[in-house]
Amino acid sequence: MENIEKFEEIIDYKFKNKKLIEQALSHSSYANERKRPNGSNERLEFLGDSVLSIVVSDYLYKHLTSVAEGELTKLRASLVCEKSLHVFAQQINLGDYLLLGKGEENTGGRERPSILADAFEAVIAAIYLDGGMEAASRHILRFIPKDVEHCKKPVFSDFKTVLQEVVQKNPEEKVEYVLIGEEGPDHNKRFVVEVCLNSQVIGKGTGRSKKAAEQLAAKEALELMGYETQ
């Protein structure tokens, strides 16, 4: 509980329901060791991803009134991608407060970008459920760069967004990401994802998170299409 209180000070939010923040900080390896199948932060991560996207979209829409839709999409993607969330998580020392299983602890889980990014989204969801959208928005907007209005290009590559823009030139085309396998133990799991265009596999990626695997699958698809991805 002492750790949670310290973390509350860092994020400047005091939880009414402490169980929410405890769950947000609980990695699946920790929940599995304690035989709590629904005790990890994975469901909160799912919700936090949506809350994050809404808040960032709303902010960009209202503050960048002269920027076109395509550029807004790229900018939003750069702010909510795993690399950005990893940086944001480091700013609040999130890794120090994670609850990890022994295996994940011993293999550097506290510094792993995918784990930190997922936990960052879970914390957003916990704040949203505990204090509503206003509290969640206030927390998220702390991390938006002050010079975001002058950013013409995203800081990080988002291959999924680029691929979607390529495909949207033909409205009848449909892109889908399919998880086809998981490899390795809980503390060092790798996900394998295929990206399909109208059910035809056009790329494959393997990563430490589903999001990372999807990005690599999209990157391979773009390269096969002849696009420069470096």
- For the record, give the distance between the C-alpha atoms at the N and C termini, rounded to a whole number: 45 Å
Q: Please compute the radius of gyration using only Cα atoms.
A: 18 Å
- The helix-and-strand class reads mainly alpha
What is the share of helical residues? 40-55%
Roughly what fraction of the amino acids lie in strands? 5-15%
Which shape, going by the Cα principal axes? globular
The largest sheet is:
3 strands, antiparallel
Poorly predicted regions are: 152-156
The pLDDT mean sits at 88
Total count of helical runs of at least 4 residues: 10
Strand order in the sheet with the most strands: 1-2-3
Number of strands: 3
Order of helices and strands: HHHHHHHHHEEEH
Summarize the structure.
The chain is mainly alpha-helical. The protein has 10 helices and 3 strands. It has helices at residues 2-11, 18-24, 28-33, 42-63, 69-80, 82-91, 102-106, 113-141, 159-167, 210-224; strands spanning 175-183, 190-197, 200-207.
Question: Describe it for me?
Answer:
This protein has 230 residues and is mainly alpha-helical. It has 10 helices and 3 strands, in the order αααααααααβββα. It has a 3-stranded antiparallel sheet with strand order 1-2-3, covered by helices on one side. Helix 2 crosses helix 8 (113-141). The longest helix is centred in the middle third of the chain and has 29 residues, at 113-141. The N and C termini lie far apart (45 Å). Mean pLDDT is 88; it is low at 152-156.
